[in-house]
Design brief:
Blueprint (H helix, E strand, L loop, with lengths): L3 E6 L2 E15 L2 E10 L4 E5 L3 E3 L3
Antiparallel strand pairs: 1-2, 1-5, 2-3, 3-4
């Protein structure tokens, strides 16, 4: 938690921060989902394939 990431928001990648990690039911069994707060003010629960690590 607290890691800076880029999350998919429409056609763009927006910088944000992971605030929590949850286990949710997926099509092939349980999977992790990440609560992310984006720099544009939006918040959401995202799967890993909708995010990428921010360069350091």
């Amino acid at each position: 938690m607290g890691e800076v990431v880029y999350a998919r928001y429409g056609p763009a990648w927006i910088r944000g921060k992971v605030t929590a990690i949850s286990r949710v039911p997926g099509a092939n069994g349980p999977e992790l989902a990440y609560n992310v707060t984006l720099d544009n003010g939006e918040r959401g629960l995202l799967p890993a394939n909708m995010m990428r690590k921010a360069p350091r």
